Amino acid sequence: MGAVQFYKEEIEVQNNDLSFLKVGDIIWAKRYKNNYERSRLERGHQESPFVVIKIENGKVYCLQCTSNPHQEVKWNILYYPLGRLNYETRKNSYIKCLTVSELKEIQFVELIGHLSDYDLNQLKKQLYILKNSKFKIKPKIERKYLDFKIWVGDIIEYNNRRYYIDSLNDKEFEVYQVSKKIKKDRSILINNTYYNFLFQNKEKINIHSFYNLVDTFNTGEIELINKYKENFHINGDSKEDLKIGSLIEYKENLYYVYDEKNNDQLVYHVYNHYEKGMADILIDGYIYHTYFEQEIILKEKLIKYGYNIKAYASSPEIEYNQKVFNLPKSKRILERKKLANDLLSSKRGVDDFIPMVILKNTNNQNYYLIVGREDNIVELVNINDFMDIFYFELDDNSPFEYYRILQKEEYEKYLNKINELKEIVSSFDK
């Protein structure tokens, strides 16, 4: 672990008193409390920066910094980056978010700076998210010490849905829904995770509603999202127009628009889950299930109650759905099996081998999750044996074939398990 060099301000500790320290202070301190702990650390690794995160009953608790985070840990929630220029450091430094430890007077060397209000707020949010994640190893810090402000760039969960905060005022958040369904051509890759922002519909949430913080982005990531949003609207990708082939959410149900009549919508109810007797249709590359229960939704009711357009079926999908609609019930079952076989047999190239995708190794029949990719180098993890993790260079003769892409929640469960294991293994090297 490389030591980060700060420009230091010397403050002498009088009578073993650390009462001058405040939450957010950056200090230089020894990583050991006694000679035995010192003997286990390599030279050059015996001191490092720490950030004060909690003060309780006169005791000071800190997070340790490193200039060399474990590169194999891909989920950035484990580390919070400190910019080299912001804090006049000679190297970039990363705050380790998992371990909160008490600082003894004997460890203190120097006070070297203080976090900005922005960084301290972001750090507390990151610790809160980590505490509420499914990591088994969590930072030992109580919620009352994590007082933070919700701001632009945060993702909140409200009524079992996730929303990205685009702007806010004293009364409400202006948000875009974040879909659980991921499609490479309609999603943005941030820190090896794909996010599908539904920029076609901006919604409002009362700022005093009950919600929970589940994710957050820094200023650079927000800028990236804004550029993506701008391109989305410039390219005419907005899905605000209701038309044949639309998948809409209306009164908490999903409907597929198969025809129009006098501006009223002819629809049938569709479901995400399958039950016996249902047929399958295709919308935006995904399979939905339906009994073909036909309804008419009047235009004035749509205006009165509101609706959200979730996706559009392509022209070939609209034709296919109409074909299934016209089939007798007995033949819809055969068509359902044929559709499943066609989708399973479809071939995808290495361009589709992205983080969140599961690949099948045709040599040993094992399944591997992609957790990182740079050019043609992918980091793979055996989904049945997390110790089996390695890098592989893709080419035309690779033994891997596309199996399926995970939803974000599924992907995070795998990452949690992988990162827990890596954090345990890395602790043996300290």
CATH class call of the largest domain: Mainly Beta
Q: Quickly count the helices.
A: 7
Major β-sheet strand ordering: 4-5-3-2-1-6
Strand fraction equals: 35-45%
Biggest sheet details: 6 strands, antiparallel
Mean pLDDT: 81
What is the CATH topology assignment of the largest domain?
SH3 type barrels
Fold and architecture overview:
- The structure is a single chain.
- This protein is α+β, with helices and mostly antiparallel strands and 430 residues long.
- It folds into 4 domains: 25-145, SH3 type barrels; 154-234, no CATH class; 246-345, SH3 type barrels; 350-427.
- 21% of the residues lie in helices and 38% in strands.
- The protein has helices at residues 35-39, 117-131, 219-234, 299-305, 315-326, 329-345, 408-427; strands spanning 25-30, 47-56, 59-66, 79-82, 93-103, 108-114, 154-158, 161-168, 172-179, 188-190, 193-206, 212-216, 246-250, 253-261, 264-270, 279-283, 286-290, 294-297, 308-312, 357-361, 367-374, 377-382, 385-393, 400-405.
- It has a 6-stranded antiparallel β-sheet, covered by helices on one side.
- Strand 21 (367-374) and strand 22 form a beta hairpin.
Keywords:
six-stranded antiparallel β-sheet; SH3 type barrels; disordered N terminus; alpha+beta; globular; about 20% helix; about 425 residues
Please summarize what this structure is.
This protein is of the alpha+beta class and 430 residues long. Helices cover 21% and strands 38% of the residues. Strand 16 (279-283) and strand 17 (286-290) form a beta hairpin.
